[in-house]
Design goal:
The protein is of the alpha/beta class. The chain has 2 domains: 33-161 and 321-380, 3-Layer(aba) Sandwich (Rossmann fold), CATH 3.40.50; 164-293 and 383-416, 3-Layer(aba) Sandwich (Rossmann fold), CATH 3.40.50.2300. The chain has helices spanning 3-28, 46-65, 89-101, 113-129, 163-176, 191-207, 228-237, 249-260, 277-281, 302-314, 325-341, 346-353, 414-417, and strands spanning 33-39, 78-84, 106-109, 136-139, 156-158, 182-188, 212-219, 241-244, 266-269, 289-293, 357-359, 368-371, 378-379, 382-389, 404-412. The protein is globular and about 65 Å long.
Length: 430
């Protein structure tokens, strides 16, 4: 045997041992629990999708930093997978199959109630057909009330307050503003936007029958680049207030157009406190733009300040400043369900999550709530807040380094925010 061949054989033997060692280490690592985020990461609402990803990434990181999910066979980490639906329900269904193929037992989505409805229907059929590959759907912002009413599903859990809960809080504030006599309703033309306008009209009529609704308009979702014509119509109507469920760029561009035409009206919004909206309107939004959410950075408690500071430390760029307590709650309730079930099997976890009470303060968070077993709607407090200049009373933090933040004007506790449901849930036998 030549010296060269002896060297080659020794090198190959060493390499084989090294590979065996690597294989042994890889096998020793616990298999991650895969969560599949299906969201529009390209197209007109890509900024909203990326904002969701940052929230979910931070939530999973916080779980993993404390050791992961505690299970009988040992702790397991969470792994967040990204799937781009391109803001399209058909594409979401396509990537759902890819997510399940990658052994994701938990699907996370929220930006679009129409997409959420399609995913619920698809998972109902998939879970019945393929019980060995079942998956749960966790919804953080698809708020069409039908999703936990007539379309409710054992496989679907919603962690955002649905549209009627948000509308009730906003219209309670509207009821107290005696100066408003005319209001304009505008929204995105799909199931959620249509519902907001229809239900908004009903609530206004019940709470303030003296207010005239001077406009009721739907526009194509994600396709309007210039809202100036809409803003001019609102201005010409004489409206002193605007009610909208618009989100993403459809909200930012609407508010920006209102500023450009000099529209002097209060905006009652679901999402007016982020994704560029405060910076777009600036001083014109002070005391005029209102938002409703389960939490906001100026809640004012020490726990809230610490929670928000931790997020800003993780994502320091001003444009990344968009944090939602409900997304943290969603991941934590899921983890608590797994640990209660002592399993990651979706049906067992679903049953364990039903009725689960969550107090995020014990985990360095801020949020509290309970997962209602009857319809899988998370019951939680709500805050209505109004845009003010940073540094004024109640506004310690601004949004996205805009110089403007939001101050609480109404707190709605969980029992007040809760609404009845019409869910007749069908539960699996096993």
């Amino acid at each position: 045997m030549t010296p060269t061949s002896r060297f080659t054989r020794r090198a190959l033997a060493s390499l084989a041992l090294a590979l065996l060692g690597l294989g042994g280490n890889a096998q020793a690592q616990p298999e991650p629990i895969r969560l599949a985020m299906i969201e529009g990461l390209s197209g007109p609402f890509a900024n909203a999708g990326e904002a969701v990803f940052r929230n979910l990434l931070w939530a999973t990181e916080r779980v993993n930093q404390r050791g992961g999910v505690k299970l009988p066979g040992g702790a397991r980490p969470l792994e967040l997978l990204r799937f781009d639906s391109k803001g399209n329900a058909e594409e979401a269904l396509s990537v759902l199959r890819a997510a399940i193929d990658q052994k994701a037992g938990y699907v996370l989505q929220g930006n679009s109630s129409a997409t959420a409805a399609a995913l619920i229907d698809a998972l109902n059929k998939h879970n019945e057909r393929m019980p060995a590959q079942r998956a749960l759907f966790l919804n953080y912002s698809a708020v069409d009330p039908a999703l936990t009413n007539e379309k409710c599903s054992f496989w679907h859990f919603r962690f955002d307050a649905h549209a009627d809960m948000r509308l009730a809080a906003l219209t309670d504030v509207l009821r107290t503003d005696s100066q408003i006599k005319k209001i304009y309703l505008i929204g995105q033309d799909y199931s959620f936007g249509q519902h907001v306008l229809r239900k908004g009209r009903e609530m206004i009529a019940a709470k303030r029958p003296d207010i005239a609704i001077v406009g009721d308009e739907l526009h194509p979702i994600g396709r309007i680049k210039d809202f100036i014509p809409y803003a001019n119509k609102i201005k010409a109507s004489g409206a002193q207030a605007v009610l909208t469920g618009n989100w993403g760029n459809d909200l930012t561009l609407l508010i920006k157009a209102a500023k450009e035409v000099g529209l002097d009206a209060r905006f009652f919004t679901f999402y007016g406190n982020g994704l560029g909206a405060p910076a777009a309107i600036g001083e014109a939004g002070v005391d005029r733009v209102l938002a409703v959410a389960e939490w906001h950075p100026n809640v004012g408690t020490a726990a809230s300040d610490t929670f928000y500071a931790s997020f800003r430390q993780r994502f320091p760029r001003p444009e990344d400043d968009y944090v939602h307590a409900r997304m943290q709650a969603m991941v934590e309730v899921l983890v608590a369900g797994m640990e209660r079930a002592k399993s990651v099997e979706p049906a067992a976890v679903a049953r364990a999550m039903e009725g689960l009470t969550y107090d995020g303060r014990t985990l360095g968070g801020v949020h509290q709530g309970v997962m209602r077993a009857a319809d899988h709607q998370f019951i939680q407090p709500l805050y209505v807040s109004v845009m003010r200049k940073a540094g004024t009373p109640g506004v310690r933090f601004d949004n996205e380094a805009s110089g403007y933040g939001f101050r609480t004007v109404r707190y709605v506790d969980a029992t007040q925010a809760e609404q009845p449901h019409q869910c007749a849930m069908i539960r699996p036998n096993n």
